[in-house]
């Protein structure tokens, strides 16, 4: 099995739970998604999971790159939203018969699931006969897609041994030493060594960034879209007191006095999404 096929298979496994999470966090009544397929029929996205739809007309719909909203996401690799699908001038209307006539969808957002820099899946959220999808729901969809991409890459590593090379591990250790060094002269020398070994002009800010655990980063990702502690606890399957503990430890690491400042600091360090 190729890496691409394996990644798409894992996305398919996780999609039902992630779409359910998106519905609960965002309040979007309709969500669906699918994975990219590269076969004799061509390079396309096949929708495989639905929730809140009128029927099954979207199921197994094959979306071509450049066609419709999803096709635009496949081609551009970025989130796209239309407020009135039927009249939108920024997309083609290859799928109006299903999207508009059968499902009666109006405002739709489509977010890419990116694996190793490639769009391998798309998550959609939609509403019917009401105002456009708000920024909060859009950000929720982006967070769910980002976390899904991370989870897929972690499972790929666990299943197939796609571990980072030793050089990367050594650079990570060197960055940790830099963070623990109080001597400014020594720190500057080590930063230069890190830059030379990595072969990139990585900024000192990036090298000196605090290290968050996976859970701390997940809690901050959800806090960034306005989720309360109770919502974060429900989404991650942990207690609300545990959420407070993760927030507290992240705030200490980021030298932040509150959750808003912690989110801002984590974004500036590149530890969570800036979207």
Word description of this protein:
With 275 residues, this protein is an alpha+beta fold. The chain folds into two domains: 3-158, 2-Layer Sandwich (Beta-Lactamase); 166-269, Orthogonal Bundle (Arc Repressor Mutant, subunit A). The chain is built from eleven helices and six strands. The protein has a six-stranded antiparallel sheet. Helix 8 (214-224) packs across helix 10. The longest helix is centred in the middle third of the chain and has 26 residues, at 135-160. The chain is globular. The relative contact order is 0.10. The model is unreliable at 163-167 and 201-205 (pLDDT under 50).
A few lines on this structure:
The protein has 275 residues and is an alpha+beta fold. It has 2 domains: 3-158, GAF domain (Beta-Lactamase, 2-Layer Sandwich); 166-269, Arc Repressor Mutant, subunit A (Orthogonal Bundle).
Radius of gyration: 21 Å
Secondary structure: helix percent = 40-55%
Helix and strand content put the structural class at alpha+beta
Order of helices and strands: HEEEHEHEEHHHHHHHH
Instruction: Report the count of strand segments.
Output: 6
Order of strands, widest sheet: 3-2-1-6-5-4
Low-confidence stretches: 163-167, 201-205
Q: Which CATH top level class of the largest domain fits?
A: Alpha Beta
Mean residue pLDDT? 84
- The tally of helices reads 11
Beta content comes to: 15-25%
Shape: globular
Question: What attributes characterize this protein structure?
Answer:
275 residues, alpha+beta, Beta-Lactamase, Arc Repressor Mutant, subunit A, 11 helices, globular
